Amino acid sequence: MFYKDQENCDYNQNNIDFIKKSSTIVGSLIEKEYNRQKNNIELIASENYCSEAVLAACGSCLSWKYAEGYPSDRKSGNRGRYYGGTEFVDEIEEYACELWRLVFDTDYHVNVQPHSGSQANFAALNAVLKPGDTVLSMNLDNGGHLTHGNAANFSGKTFNFVFYDVDDKGFIDMEDVREKALKYKPQLILAGASAYSRIIDFKAFGQIAKEVGAYFMVDMAHIAGLVAGGVHPSPFNYADIITSTTHKTLRGPRGGIIFCRPELAKKIDSAIFPFAQGGPLEHIIAAKAICAEEAMKDEFKEYVAQVVKNCKVFADEFTKMGYKVVTGGTDNHVFLLDLKDFSFSGRDLQERCDENGITLNKNCVPGEKRSPMQTSGVRVGTAPMTTRGYKEEDFIEVAHKIDKIIQELEVEKKEEQ
Ligand SMILES: *Cc1c(COP(=O)(O)O)cnc(C)c1O
Which atom of ligand 1 lies at the shortest distance from residue 118's CA? Predict the structure, then answer.
């Protein structure tokens, strides 16, 4: 049940009314945010709206239950049984793990405890690498993520990251990946992105990793929902480790998840607990189980198929109006508008869109000349509005709204200069 279905019972509003009874300040601010979310056109590619059942699990009594360790150890009382009373959260966690293997039709080991996508990457990289080891990945400017080797992040501070490039159209350059893999002999090759609109060739990456004897890790934080729904090729059976968030296209609670080949299970599990985290968030794990149930429904498959259809039409409409879409289009839920030819920055457009009830984010584009705080592009995605029922014609309308905002902004900026 999403916003569009909430005429009779509004879980969010009920919650807000409840909170207001004990804190008017917090309750009123959440209410303002709720109204902003309902009224705005939400185009942030990493966001989505989860179901009321997922939300209710997040707010449930599991929130305060401590259960350090893993269900099998907690049950047997051997290793890691630090707390009593875990019998029901053990069942929930085991059920969650079982379901997630079904979602991706895999016999990989799964760990549902990461608190977020970044925590999942922190654990995964530390599970198989030593400080100073070399990792080949995509940098932030080309669409990667902070945890893929950014200098300010743990990843860049701990490991020796080298980066493959995109070609001049913005596509991942597999020849460059192979050349750099042969040149730098990385211990791990990382594929996956936060702002990349094309299919990633996991098979080709896997072959290169094999050729140079590197681990192959996929971070599918953005596209996991598309993989689950069968509209993006799956990294399973190619990657040794797969990390993800559960709150982006998967439309679940905010959190992370790790899959790995069974032989890496011990390394991954101990990298989450006790290395990276303490007690797992059992309320979020319950919500992850509900998210997995939802992701296996036909309705979800239809949803992700519509997300991709909407995105293609949305990108094409910008192209028809003469805009530059990075890579010329999209295969997934996201694309970047390259605004280098305009006088304003990505940040200017983000702010102007905010004033007009459209939420999106500034983003670096390939060949970026502005700073990451300014940028020359914006990133848009179709996952949240598709959840709210948007179809192709609705996105065409949004494209024209953004075009109008851009044209007005350009006139103003030119006059200022
Ligand atoms: C969003 C994202 C993450 C991090 O997720 P958080 O839950 O925000 O920590 C990691 N990797 C990629 C590619 C992402 O897009």
Answer: 9
CB neighbours of residue 149 within 10 Å = 25
Helical H segments across 229-339, by residue range: 265-270, 282-295, 298-320
- Non-local (6+) Cβ contacts of 77 within 8 A are none
Distance CA 32, CA 26 (A): 10
**pLDDT classification of 142: cutoffs 50, 70, 90:** confident
The pTM assigned to this predicted structure is: 0.96
Instruction: Determine the Cα–Cα distance for residues 65 and 312; give it in Å rounded to an integer.
Output: 44
Predicted confidence (pLDDT) per residue in 234-251, tens digit: 999 999 999 999 999 999
What's the rounded Cα separation, in Å, for the pair 112 and 127?
16
CA of 20 to the centre of ligand 1 (A): 32
Say if CB 181 and CB 209 are below 8 A apart: yes
Question: Catalytic residue among 3, 11, 66, 95, which?
Answer: 66
Closest ligand 1 atom to residue 119 Cα is 9
Contact in structure between 334 and 197 (CB atoms under 8 Å): yes
End-to-end Cα separation, the chain, in angstroms: 49
Ligand 1 atom 15 nearest Cα = 194
